[in-house]
Amino acid sequence: MAHIGSYSHILGKKAYYDKHKPVLLLHCDGTTASQTFKDSSPSNHTVTAVSDTAVRNTAPLKFNGHAYFQGTDDYLSIPDSANWNFGTGNLCIDFWVRTHIQVNDVGLLGQYDDDNNYFSLTMTDDGSDLTFSFHFSNAGSGSSLTTTAISNVANPWYHVAVIRGWGGNANDWSICVDGTSKVSGTKDYTLPDLDAILRVGSSYLVSESSYEYLNGYMDEIKIINGATPWIANFNVPPRPYTSWR
Q: Which domains can be identified in the chain, with CATH numbers?
């Protein structure tokens, strides 16, 4: 198993330490119904809860709390930043997700300028199987990755990681679910530098010509730009990540 992390004690509780500095880290902790979300990365991005998006610290918990999205127009909005300009560098976007009601296409995270310039992390759930996909386009040139079908047991939490730098190779990609690569491939592309908010809990699906929304929960949402902690199958973090500020 390839992973780079360890435990540290934060405020008397165990936390999972990843030596790679994140540009976004959302623990999604707080008082139930609070719409305050703190970025615990050094970047300290402003996070705005849109519509009824809120913290919950009641079941079904993964750790201490999570973001709850009701599936219609809920999402977290984070201003555009150079942190989302991934270019040709390594990256890792990872989080925990749990669906509340099975729907077909679900937007999880992304930025969208227009149909030729975007990136989008999505999930397709038909009630029995699900897949995760990463789509991107830069001036009309792009590609996508889609996992093999994963059996959707009753309301589990899934750990999802989109990785560039898989196998230690700059142009090798993977999407891992619960620490296991479910799709990989070589894609020599420059990701677009977009002028748009970053959405969490929603993203634009070009195939549907619309924003799609998660009806469910997300937790421990982390983005690393320029590195990845995992280059092969790994043990998923068993604790929340260490805060960086």
A: 25-225 (2.60.120.200)
